[in-house]
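Priority: low. Protein: Tonoplast intrinsic protein. Input follows.
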Amino acid sequence: MAKIALGTTREATQPDCIKALIVEFVTTFLFVFAGVGSAMAADKLYAESSLVGLFAVAVAHALVVGVMISAGHISGGHLNPAVTLGLLAGGHITVFRSFLYWIDQLLAASAACILLYYITGGLATPIHSLASGVGSLQGVIWEIVLTFSLLFTVYATMVDPKKGALDGLGPTLTGFVVGANILAGGPFSGASMNPARSFGPALVSGDWTDHWVYWVGPLIGGGLAGFIYENFFIVRSHALLPSEEERY
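Result:
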């Protein structure tokens, strides 16, 4: 059973934590900027072809996720409160540092969307919302399954010490899963998988329709995947050192 550490407020003043928060802010900002920007571009350029727009958004997210996870190696490149929760459930980050990451991610997502709104001349910021005919429970289940697959991939390709031939491919493969999930779930739940990615557009647009779905679903899916993979699939030959516990 994974041991979850509470951590202390002293972490906030430690140089490694401060550096990690700066990197997490930058990478989350750039991820949301590209992700939301691609959705805005799709609405502008492919309004008459929803399939082309969906594909463009999926590809953009797949690419930027892979790159930003790699670029954010200092912080772990979470980019996502659900990823942070999944790693917390596996004992890879303290509770206190998790809260710092969540605040950091929400601030970065908000800043990215505010900047996009300004530099596009006030273009509408598309939010995540449920498609017509998709109920709240259905939307939550969509987000649970999609986020579960995201965290399962993170654990299998980056956290698991026995990842073998997959070593080094984790960020790219995680990006592929995000893109595939958007193609599958985008027309139904929006395929957020990320409360911060949904929070920024909702804040800027002032439209909170179905917003709770994009917290409940991803957090359940992420936490569940982290707990299951860590406790049922990872076999460790020795206790991890504290410095290793912060990484994935």
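DSSP finds nine helices and no strands in the chain. The longest helix spans residues 15-45.
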